[in-house]
Task: structure prediction
Amino acid sequence: MSTILNVVSVEKYYGTKVNLKKALDRIQFSVNVGEFVSIMGPSGSGKTTLLNCISTIDSISAGHIYINNEDLAALPLEKMAAFRRNNLGFIFQDFNLLDTLSIEENIALPLSIKNIPAKEIQQSVQLLMQQLGITDIASKFPPQVSGGQKQRCACARAFINRPKLILADEPTGALDSVSTGQILTLLTELNRQEQATILMVTHDPLCASYGKRILFLKDGHLVKELHRGQMSRTDFYHAILSEISALGGEK
Ligand SMILES: Nc1ncnc2c1ncn2[C@@H]1O[C@H](COP(=O)(O)OP(=O)(O)O)[C@@H](O)[C@H]1O
Ligand SMILES: [Mg+2]
Result:
């Protein structure tokens, strides 16, 4: 199995000497191509910081992060941005869609900023919208559709480029339970059928149970790893719940 992400002894501090906050403490793990990994932990444990460091939205204080064997922090800014564009897909809790673009145009955005013929872009977008069941809202604008539909659109936008790694921060945090189930099923399908590698942050055990492996963060430390193995999702969910209680509760 080849490694897509390698996080080596990563530390992240916020603030200055008098007001120093260690958000990540010697975090170390790797993710193989095609994995679906959930990162769990209570509020303030460092989940978003970790994801932002991996995506180079934030900078690390020590250690290394390799994506596809590339140390992103060592790249000049322009190359870093290009690497991010070509290799990473992002899904956020609050969708981050552009309200002035239609659903279709939002999905096409990662391709539009590359030099790809319009016809090719349109074909890829059409195909993916069919797959995700959002063809009927193609020409609507984000404010005109539901939260679940917005997040479907955001998933399509994250995937249209066929990125090596999809990073999702609480992707269902703003959704009702029905839409949550649909988005998680969608991510599972992208992972299974399209071999998309997914790293998803969530504080919700049910959401986390869709992953194949869980990394538990607590106070900036990686304290535990759980593998789903041959477990059903329900059994995995219960295993996650007992792990959370063993680690001292969620909140
Ligand atoms: N920009 C920042 N400046 C100072 N402290 C921060 C900043 N971002 C996060 N933190 C602190 O780092 C810790 C981890 O935060 P975060 O990664 O957002 O946690 P989570 O996503 O797990 O809720 C928290 O104690 C938070 O207050
Ligand atoms: Mg967070």
The first helix runs from residue 47 to 54.
